[in-house]
């Protein structure tokens, strides 16, 4: 790589660190370091990003699909930089009209300041825009009135998937901010909390101040080659986009956005968001052979040669079939292993379409020890997430396969988990049932 190549590991490492730290100083430094990648050096020495318009943004906050980069096989590519803000609602009861207008104006500023993702450019190789979702927890709705039927308390969520009660989120809301440009997510965050007077050249006239305070901050990154560049594990394949070595988004395991949209009720057109931070035991994962890792990530009937080092040889399809999903017991007896993808496929609907959609995922940069993973999915119903997550648990199956050979659940520990409701844009500012 040349000294000016924007893919250089040192630039990547710097941007990752800047996003993880946050703040206006990190934003300034990130802008300077990303200048060459953005190729927007001007006489005024200012960097500008494509502007947006509320008229071009979908009615559903979660409708990102047409505004994401796609790979050569047509699979959507998650944004490289992610910030998840945990928010605390500062009100003590029903929101006022002024508070709603303030939140609506703050979100509208971001819509105008940055284009929605790729701006709908089907051939875009890089996402210079911003994608975001504001979603509300059961505790928020309990404070302002009634909790919608589409949510369950966070304690019930983690209990339903057999996880530690201490991992349940305590936030009133979360804000997902995503882009391929670290400076974009940092600028958006700074604007929301009044740490800058302008954002991408627009005046910041409304913020979250006095309505939401920041109670937590979780950051992550994803991208081809990034895990090998940044993690202390030399067995990660050089081109892998995620730390466990395989790509995860295939057209057959990602449902349509219509499938994960709430169909009726007070929040029809919205969705629910399951937000998690996990840790991964990579050392134990890579103690296995490539064949064993393929078997546990996908299915033991998969040919490792056909999967390839990172799953790229599979193209647009994961290769997991209904027969694989129905053959967990048989594969357990035959191979002594079962696969993560074949198990989660058991939660697909009657048309064999998945019920949860990975929205953002990536290597967590906010965990204290080990390697972390940020995972955010959207689904029409909380039960869809619970059912899919439960299929991962080895004790859901009547076989003699050891937990470490039963998909990937045994390599994961949950640091935090929460469920949230993301209303459509028409009701995104402090909603009530």
From TrEMBL:
Descriptive protein name: Tat pathway signal protein
SUPFAM superfamilies: Dimeric alpha+beta barrel
Phylogenetic classification of the source organism: Archaea, Methanobacteriati, Methanobacteriota, Stenosarchaea group, Halobacteria
Pfam families: DUF7405
Region span, Disordered: 40-60
